[in-house]
Design a protein that fits this description.
single chain; about 375 residues; alpha+beta; four-stranded antiparallel beta sheet; 11 helices; 13 strands; about 45% helix; binds alpha-D-galactopyranose
Amino acid sequence: MRTRIHEKFKDLFGEGGVQYASAGRVNLIGEHTDYNGGYVFPGAIDCGIIAEIKVNGTDRVRAFSLDYNEEVTFGLNEEDKPSQAWACYIFGVCRETMKRGGKVAGFDTVFAGDVPLGAGLSSSAALESTFAFAIEDINKNGIDRFELAKIGQMTEHHYCGVNCGIMDQFASCFGKQGSLIRLNCKTMEYKYFPFNPQGYKLVLIDSCVKHELASSAYNKRRQSCENAAAHIRKNHPEIEFLSDCNRLWLDEVRSEIPEEDFLRAEYVIGEVQRVLDVCDALERGDYETVGEMMYQTHFGLSKLYEVSCEELDFLNKLARKMDVTGSRVMGGGFGGCTINLVKDELYQSFIDAAREQFAARFGHDPKIYDVVISDGARRLK
Ligand code: GLA
């Protein structure tokens, strides 16, 4: 990929470009907890975005996407927002940098990616973090990594219509080879956990289903949580986020809020606790408990949060039937992957069965990805 990018860059813009990269992410547990001030447990993975970049001495950006085989040029004022969705991410990152007082010198870029699109592996966060990091490295605005992650998140909010939490951009900015990161999304404290479970593999099974309207459904989930938290706050003014609440407090407001909001909040409160239980279990090397929590998360995401789908429920059931240690839908949901914690000796028969039975049931093959935990945003040598 690096060579292809470099060749195209040379053709279009000449020599002198520098390459930057960032990564997609997985999340062991802690789903839809980030925007509720809870914990998440992500790590960067070995697929991502690579961009070659060089300042061009103008106040414009010329960007070529190798994957779409398309070039877009845009200025850096608010009204210059490009119409191509992929270019909006880059534009948004430039704008958000400038809103923080940063300078963005016009640049030329060619980029490509190998994060499967729509798989719930955060190709968009990889794209945002690559450019946020590169722009910082080139312009030396003194913006730290936390703020780079925020730049990516606010790009989603202000330029892409998704009111996402911080997890994806955090993981792609802070990812470290071999480690998952437990992040407290309220205080932004984080801790690296070396993750190398002896005797187990983490494997993703991509349903290759991507549901329309996923972003509006996502935003709606967030609203439900905020509504539940607002009602609880009337009785308990000290709470800031839903993650500060307990089940009793939620029960107190059950009759005041739509049942749907109650179920969403019930899931979140359970999930916040599960992440902590998983941390304890990891410290003991107790992967059976980790796996059991993953199944509970899947149940919650499917039945209470309602972000799963038939295909993902099917893969989850199959994992359970085959005694896979843990399995659940990963990421925002509405399609994408399950993440599975599988004993080495079961690995081959599980993925064979998943391929065969999924194809027989849904008429198309799933995709299988082994998870390799890798580095996040960086300049390439
Ligand atoms: C998407 C969002 C994240 C997070 C997850 C669900 O990936 O971008 O902020 O909310 O969904 O955990």
